[in-house]
Each structure stands twice: as C-alpha cells, then as structure tokens.
Amino acid sequence: MPKNLNLNREEMPRQDAKVRGKNYKEVALGYSLEKATAEANRCLICAKPLCVLGCPVNVDIRGMINGVKEGDLPAAVKAMKSKNALPGICGRVCPQETQCEQMCVLAKRGAPVAVGRLERFVADWERQHTETTGVTPPPPTGKRVAVVGSGPAGLTAAADLAKLGHNVTIFESLHIAGGVLMYGIPEFRLPKEIVQNEINFVVSLGVKIELDSVIGKLATVDELLNNGFDAAFLGTGAGLPMFLNIPGENLNGVYSANEFLTRVNLMKAYCFPEYDTPVKIGKTTAVIGGGNVAMDSARCALRMGAEKVYVIYRRSRTEMPARHEELENAEEEGIEFKFLANPRQFIGNDRGGLVAMECDTMELGEPDKTGRRSPMVKPGCEFKIAVDSAIVALGTTPNPLIAQTSPGLQTSSRGTVVADPATGKTGKPRVWAGGDVLTGAATVISAMGAGKRAAADIDKFLRS
Fold first, then answer.
1. Dihedral of CA 296/301/304/307: which sign?
2. In the structure, how many helices (H) and strands (E) does the chain have?
3. Beta-carbon neighbour count of residue 257 at 10 Å?
4. d(CA 166, CA 144)
C-alpha cells in the first residue's frame, strides 16, 4: 500500500439539515469532477478487485474507477453499464457500505473507496453526455419474454434480456413505470427524473412497456404464455403492507407506510394543491419501525409539516436495519428516536381521530434466528405519547393476485413465490421470478441481482 495514500474519503456535499428538512430537493449534492478524481485516485486498481465480489450485479468497479482516474469518462460509463442498467439509482440508494465498499482493501487501514459516490458521479455525467454512450443492438433471437413489474428486478431482467437479442415487454400495473423506485423512495433521496432517465435507457434497448396493465386482471400469466410469449419473469415486488394488529389501528390518522409514501412520492402530495393529493399530517407524528422505509416515512412527515416526529423501534440503535447514513440524516433533521419501545394500542377521541399511543418498554433477550437479540416486554413500564398521526413501517409481503391466478405457482407461508434463488426458476414451466416477490421486502440492488440471474437462466432456456 503506497505510503502517501489518502486513507480518508472525499466528503459528499449535502444540503444543510435546517434547510433540507423543509424541501424535497436532493439531500446529497454529488461530487464535482475534482472531488470525483481525488476519490478515484485513492483506488489501488487491485489486480483481483474484491469489491466486485461484494456487488450483487458484479459491476466492473475497477474499470469504472480507472476511467475516472484517467479522465476517460466514456470508458468509465462503458465499464459501469456493462453490468448495471440502473447506475444513477444504485449510486444513490444501494447499501454500498455493507457490500462492495466493505470488501475494499483500504477498509483495513482507513475509509474504503467511495464506490457508490463515484458510481453516482459517472451516471450523472452520462446523463448530461448521452451522445457518448450509444448501444449497438444485438441480432434478434425471435424469442419473446413477458416481464411483470417494472421495479428494479423487472427493469434489470428486461435490460439484460434485450441486450441478448430477445423481444421483451414489461407489464406495469401503475400509470408510470418504476415500481418501488417511484412510489416508495422519496424525491429527496432518489429524484424521479433520475428513475425515468434510467427507464428511458432500458426502453432504448428495445424494451416495450405497457402501463396500467394489471396481470391477473388484464391477462393471466398462462394467457401471456399461451399468446406468443416464450417465457415470463415475475418482478412484482412486495406491495402489501404488514400491520401491528393492535387496538385502534384503524383510527383516522394511522397510515401504512405504503399508503403514505405512495401518496407523497408517486402522487406528489408534497406539491399540494398543484397535485390534488391531500395527506393530513398533524403536529406530532410517530413512525413505527427501524428500516429504511421508516426513515423515509419520518423524513417525509417532517417535510409535510409535522412539528415533531418520533421513530419508535422495539430494539436498540445497534439492531436497527436502516442504513447508518439515513439514520444520521434523520437525526440531523431533528427526528427523535425512542428505542426499546413498542406500541400496544392507539388511542382515539370521540370523533375517531388518533390522539395518543400507548407503548410497552422493551428489553433485549437472546438472539433470534436473524442474529439480532429478541425484544421482550418489560412488565409494568408502559407509557403514553401524544400523537395525532402514526405511520406503520413494519415491512411488506407480495400482493397475492399473481399467485391466485397462476395455477402451479408455489408460494410460501409468507406469500412469497417459491423459486430457485440461484436462477429464479419457479416450479411452473417457463416462469421465473426475482426480487421482493421472492424474498419479501429487501434492497434495490438485491432485486437487481435476482433479475440479472434470472435473465441469464431465461436466455439459457430460450437458446436450448
């Protein structure tokens, strides 16, 4: 390791916390060319880049960073997009700290190379210089593939299959493509212009997108396969919210995170009355959960006008599954965390409106099957919090519509589709699946990895 190597990464400029808590503009502002070059110069360009092993889609990270180092940004784009059709998205929401960056050899001595920030920089540069990064279409195979869902798994599978010469049509149930990227992740973390730009790239590969097309209603999976499609990929995600199942959960003012974030993000409630999507947020909001969706909900509630926002989590800070960056951003913006607490009932007034929440105090016992210590109620330590809105962000399961209308498609007790995790192949002939519909709610990049693996196996099947 060179003696004069900088072991500290280049900081990412961000909006001031007091300012950003009142707007929906992007929080992280991105690297300048100078900062990106300085960060890229920290990379050792390893002969055997371990960072790639930590990437679920095996991006050519060394080639991408070397392009930045050498000042050859078209080469950086080519290396990046050889494996990843959605780099502007991944550079913003991918948990690099537990994947590629965790594997970086610099992490043993200091801060790992900021792979995610460099990926974002290269993707943003390409968006301004599209003339340098055209795609040569492959010879058509004559095979047709139906992709159900246009979230990260579906878009990745569609892009890879199109690059291999197959004719791909995506069927999206909503009026705009993008899935969870559009309805779930806030504008200040992932601008929708970026998502649509990435989708336009997928379309440029020859992929067709049919909007307002609910498979299971418009047509079943079997009808697609019987009417010209040689294979189908299910990337329908996990859009069915989970609830606490405690008294008062259907009081006015209690939302699921799915409903709340869909209204705010996809239906642009933050632009009311320009967009006619009212969302009532009172003075004090409680968000129940400890993942990224809880962080997104809390930070949106703040921007929607809540004067005080609490995050209620039944374990300690150490066990929180949210990214450290998102937790840190939320704290800087003034959101208060109540750890080792769990709601036992919502309390309403005589008009059916939420006015308070009663919680149990928790303590941690032995680790559960995930390795995290199990929370247990501490008897006699209940407490109340005055709140007039609450957002339940406990996770999601797949919508059952596809399973109910697809005979032979096996599902688990959690409602997820059963398939080979290495290939995405289900027990139903000519049907593959990947992403949250297989795993339950997970990360964008893990869904993309599943889409990529399934596309490779579908191609192998079609060519056989």
1. negative
2. 18, 16
3. 26
4. 6
| DSSP per residue, 132-192 | G---PPPPP---EEEEE--SHHHHHHHHHHHHTT-EEEEE-SSSSS-THHHHTS-TTTS-H
φ, ψ of residue 392 to 5 degrees: the values are: -95, 115
Distance CA 356, CA 353 (A): 9
As a whole number of angstroms, the distance between CA 361 and CA 440 comes to 28
Find out whether the peptide bond into 398 is cis, omega within 30 degrees of 0. Answer: no
Please tell me the predicted confidence (pLDDT) of residue 136: 79
Fold entry, domain 243-394: FAD/NAD(P)-binding domain (3.50.50)
| Phi then psi dihedrals of residue 13, to 5 deg | -60, 140
| Share in percent of the chain as helix, strand, coil (round to 5) | 35, 20, 45
pTM of the model: 0.94
CA distance 208 to 451: 17
pLDDT in tens, 1-60: 566 666 789 999 999 999 999 999 999 999 999 999 999 999 999 999 999 999 999 999
What pLDDT was estimated at residue 133?
61
CATH class of the domain defined by 144-239+397-463: alpha beta
Q: What is the pLDDT of residues 370-427, one digit of tens each?
A: 788 889 999 999 999 999 999 999 999 999 999 999 999 999 999 999 999 999 999 9
Q: How many CA atoms lie within 13 A of 81 on its CB side?
A: 27
Q: Do domains 17-132 and 144-239+397-463 have the same CATH topology?
A: no
CATH number belonging to domain 17-132: 1.10.1060.10
- Is 70 exceeded by the pLDDT of residue 82? yes
For the chain, the domains span 17-132, 144-239+397-463, 243-394
Length of the chain: 464
